[in-house]
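Async update (no meeting this week)

Hi team, since we skipped the sync, here's where things stand on the single-chain job. The sequence we agreed to prioritize is pasted below, unchanged from the tracker. I ran it this morning and attached the output directly underneath so nobody has to dig for it. Comments welcome in thread, and please keep replies under the output.
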Amino acid sequence: MTHKHESLQITLDPWQTRRLKEWHGSIVRAHFDADCEPPECELWVSVIGPLRGAGMIATAKTGSLELGDVKVEFVETQLPKPARLEAAICTMRGNCPDQQDAMWIDGKVYQHPHCEPTTVSIGQDEALLVICDGVSPSPDAARASRFAAMAMADSVKKHPEWSFDGLASARHVRAAQQKLCERMQRGKLAYGASTTLVAAHIHGDRLAVLNCGDSRAYLLRHDGKIEHLSRDHTIKNRLLDSGEAQQGVEYASMYNAMSDCLVADPEDSDTFAIHRETTTLQPGDRLILCSDGVHDAVDESAWLAAMARQDMPLWMVRDTEQMVVEAGAPDNFSVVALLIGDAPNGNKEA
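Output:
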């Protein structure tokens, strides 16, 4: 049965409309469930993933409409239930000659000049997310970040006995640094190659965040609270820890330089600092990992406030990309956003 276009009304924001128009002449599949109240609708645009519109009205189960320059076909179906762990990523080279950021997202490494905001497959009960940012003054920084991300994933997979309460530990990070040393020492010019690392390991409703350097992890709670789970390893923070510096006192910018990161130097295997934080997750919590190309480029408070207003990972990374680009994108940047859904049994945690 064919229905008039007036029976279907969809409002999309400018970003979604632009994405659809980029697929000029294509047919976009649209699924909706008219049994829901109000009816639910989802557009699917190739690798871009799902685009959910606001203010949707759907009274028919089949039909078609013209949306901009793109024909949209509706098919009768039930919308798939969202995965418990729903994630999206974005990375960009920015105004740098090379891409020195690398990401490991649940089984795959990403290191591209530009990966537009994209939804990614993620596990139902366990996931590992890693972002590494090669330190530009060091040699072969791009290869260091890529290999460190892969080495971290490999150590977590092969050595579950090193875990605490089923979650990754600092020993996994030190093992990744040792593998980095072994790999990079094959080339004399790569000695001293360096990278930051931030990793999030989720198992059930538990989360462990580990970091070394200044790549960060934030947790946006379902009740509006924002938690900074990582710790920047800077000279200033090291002096604060030792009591040689005081909170509230301004220090020269040189003290904001990194004090610790992963370095392809065997003698550094036991000396670099690792921060580890664990917490319990609740449905509706959102986790963000990013390199310093994000938090150094934007106003952190304004960015996190924008993130708190979003409840979809794809839109979170989309808005992050837009804010960094508007700020000039002075550095490589990468961001991963992950939404915690209902528990596997379909019941929300208390």
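Quick observations from my side:
The longest strand covers residues 85-92.
Residues 88 and 119 are 4 Å apart (CA to CA).
Reply here if anything looks off.
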